[in-house]
Amino acid sequence: MISSSTKNTVELYKSRLVQQHDKFLQETFASSGAGYQKLYSYHHLINGFAVKLQDHQADTLKSAPGVMLVQKDWRVSKLTTHTPDFLGLPTGVWSQQGGAGNAGDGIVVGIIDTGIDPTHPSFSGQAFASNSSSNTSSGLKSFRGSCEVASFCNGKIVGARHFAAAATASGNFNASVDFDSPLDGDGHGSHTASIAAGNYNVPVTINGYSYGKASGMAPRARIAVYKALYRQFGGFVADVVAAIDKASKRNFRKSFHKLIDGVDVLNLSVGPNSPPSSSSATFLNVFDMAILAAVKQGVFVAQAAGNGGPYPRTIVSFSPWIATVAAGLDDRSYPNYISLGNAKTLPGVGLAPPTPGSSTYSMILAKDAVGNSSNYFFSPNDCQDPSLFNAQLVKGKVLICTFSFSFIFGGATVHQVAATVANLSAVGFVLVVESDLAGSKFEPVPISVPGIVITTSESSEELLRYYNSSTTRAANGKAASFNATAKIGNGQEAVFNSSAPQVALYSSRGPDVRNFAFQDADVLKPNILAPGSLIWGAWTPSGTDEPNFQGKNFALVSGTSMASPHVAGIAALLKKEFPGRSPAVIASAMMTTASTTDNRGSPLLAQHPSSSASSDLESATPFDYGHGAINPKAALDPGLVFDAGYGDYIKFLCAVPGVNATAIFNATRERCSQPAGLMSDLNLPSITISSLGGERRVPRTATSVGAKTEKYRVVVTNPAGVAVSVKPSAFAVDPGRSVSLGILVRARDSSEEFSFGEMRLVGDLGHTVRLPITVLRRQAYSSS
Which residue among 561, 564, 686, 751 is the active-site one? Predict the structure, then answer.
């Protein structure tokens, strides 16, 4: 426990810093008469503040005595019933920890997102009834958080705060819409929290249909919520940094520890839209610096890779101290079909019940059913407004609508199509697409009436040809009889495919970049692949992030935002199992044991754009999946790990080309030693060289976390045009001991493309430790 005298000392220190910040601002701007608005004092991880200024005031601040660094604020964006089984948790890590009821117990997962719905069953505190008093951190060794709204804390939720000073100063925050509390008004935050640490076996029922039971990755872990993102505009870095500053642990003068909230794991399903332009290196922006300070205190941080794929250099999580998570498809999908009266069956998608019985029903095209089209916002073909249609014509038929770009960009929803159909007493609907691009954007939406979306233009045209050839029209073109018939299948039943995982089309790709000019970095990004597509998770009924799920308690959504909390939750499981391991060691255990093959044993594939709605599949590379697909059970026993600490990350920063020592000192208060070394010297469980001229020597230190002495041999698969040699090529290592590896990477030729290989350390007790090798060879080695 922390003594009262320690707490008083800390509060005095914090108060003194705030006073210093206030005095500094007053003295700097008092003489000019110009106004300013201080938003935050950062006094836990970093000594600084966020302030609203005019541009000329910012210039004044940059030149003021004692100011080390000034960065302009920028916006950030929000970037499961089956996945625990898909990842093998029930028979793997959960089993080892005593079952789902104990998995992750004692660990706190911090969620920086859009808030949380504390009434949702995924966050019920019933299982923590003995801890649901005002002392919500009861049973937790180091957590000291609290809820700004007392009712949010229930034993499962142990902390809940919101941060909106920057959003308010910008004029974006609206308390009546965005909620001036930790309450989730979007849905995104509740969803990510439930994936990481939602309760075990929560029934998922929508429209009266059961889709199974949902569980978080670490169902017994506690949740601390830091709301810094909002439904309409995303968020601002100043608010997110304030959330990180509050969430993380802080060593105070080396004698006081575990103050502030003290989460163990932090999930950030958030990131910038592009590399920040306000710092000389992507790694030195204030967002990544705040995360580095958190990692220094032992907090494992997972961040979404971004949704800018499949294009290269779209990663928005840059630094080597962050676990950057790519999104994959697991082995579950929800296909559907429509059977036409001409005996043709067309595939589609739709989480909807089938049309009644075995009968077929007449179809009617939306434009043929229009009764009043004189005044409308959406095209009648979008089927958003039942008042536009002749109800008698539509009744008992399958209504044919168009999945236009209004559904993607204009606010039209499948949910409203279903409402239109119900209002008109139609038997169901089918949505055809105008283009394959529109179809490729569609994801299944749970609805209560029979419905299906035909996602390819080829199948859409086939259905329309059948309809037009079967429909009798008068001389004026008006439909007179409707002879085309169809029945819709059951789209609510999941289908499982062994060809998984695959890298999702939207998942951002590497290589990593070191600055706003998109110059490549000697860091592998993304780091790991986790499920991110069609993930069931908690939702708030007032949520607007996905219009089709308004009013629902669960949502099925996709994104790297959904992949990142999978890794955060699994990190919580590893933290419980090995509480003394550093964030780098936990990350190393996940990464070196990740799989580069799918469930059939074939190499992983990645989705890429195609000329149709379905994506092409191509062989995946480390720039698609990092080290591979996460394997939680294997991560429990990695054999060897590659550790790195705060001092190592400072050396890495000092080695970044184009960054001077002054900039690093201003950002970290740490001085660079000479010589600076190379970025590739950082002891990562991978080797990335973005510009190899001739040859380079790369050091790595492997530490045994095995139970027994093990003999390892080195097996290298050389990247194309590269020769890699390792000394020693074989070694034995005792538990807790380390071995230094000297790796020589030599270019045989030059190329403008990266090539990929790997180094495997194969142990005689069953461990295989895999390090990806990615190299761009600029110049061939010459011995002369």
Answer: 561
